[in-house]
Amino acid sequence: MKHAVLIAAMFLGTGAAMAAPAPVEDIATGAGNDRVAKLERIIKARQQAELDMQRRLDTLQQEVLELRGLSEQQNYQINQMQQRQRQLYDEIANLSAKSSATSVTVDTGNGAAASSSLGETASYEHAVNLVLKERQYDEAIPAFRAFIKQYPDSGYAANANYWLGQLLYNKSEFAEAKQAFSTVVERFSDSNKRGDSLVKLGLIAEKTGDMAAAKSYYRRVVKEYANSAAARIAQQQLAAIKG
């Protein structure tokens, strides 16, 4: 009897032992939490690094675009000057052929006096020569002014006003340069310098802080002279202002 009771007690003890839950480590706490937190920190660090990298790339891209725009603008101006120089040399050659063989002694230091003593063709040629051949830019200003005053309706008047505006613009005399370029725009609608004059008016407006006027001039160029070199520079300037 005692033996049976002992055996029964052993079975009960074994059952109790099997029924008791085994200790289980809580993977959601302790070392498990540390690993999750570490992974989160790594992910956040990578995301921040990627964000910083994207910002740097955006900044570099913007700088490249600005430099490209500046380079294109400078190339445009150089090409315009070279093209105009070739045109003027051709004009000078034609004018020389047509001019009467009159011997006139002039003081090249006094552009206005020289222009007043010459005829229409020779006066224009004299002013152009002061720029292209003699590089006497200060003397060329009064020479062009004298020519414009004496021959306001000349076939060379549009070009004379444009050159006067360019010379004054180079000296940062923007008010007088604006007047010369405006004359080309308003009085010589068929001139091939009208689009360039509108661009110059836009640049003057920018330099004097009138951004609304600058945009207006550039938009006129884009609208009236689409696909031209002047329109391309106007679009670049508009993009730079918006940026």
TrEMBL record:
Mediates coordination of peptidoglycan synthesis and outer membrane constriction during cell division. One of its GO terms (cellular component) is outer membrane-bounded periplasmic space. Transmembrane segments: none annotated. One of its GO terms (biological process) is FtsZ-dependent cytokinesis. InterPro entries: CpoB, CpoB_C, TPR-like_helical_dom_sf, TPR_rpt, YbgF_tri. The keyword Cell cycle applies. It is found in: Periplasm. The lineage of its organism: Bacteria, Pseudomonadati, Pseudomonadota, Gammaproteobacteria, Alteromonadales. Residues 1-19 form the signal peptide. Residues 33-103 form the YbgF trimerisation domain. It comes from Shewanella salipaludis. This is Cell division coordinator CpoB. Belongs to the CpoB family. It holds the Pfam family TPR_16. Keywords: Cell cycle, Cell division, Periplasm, Signal.
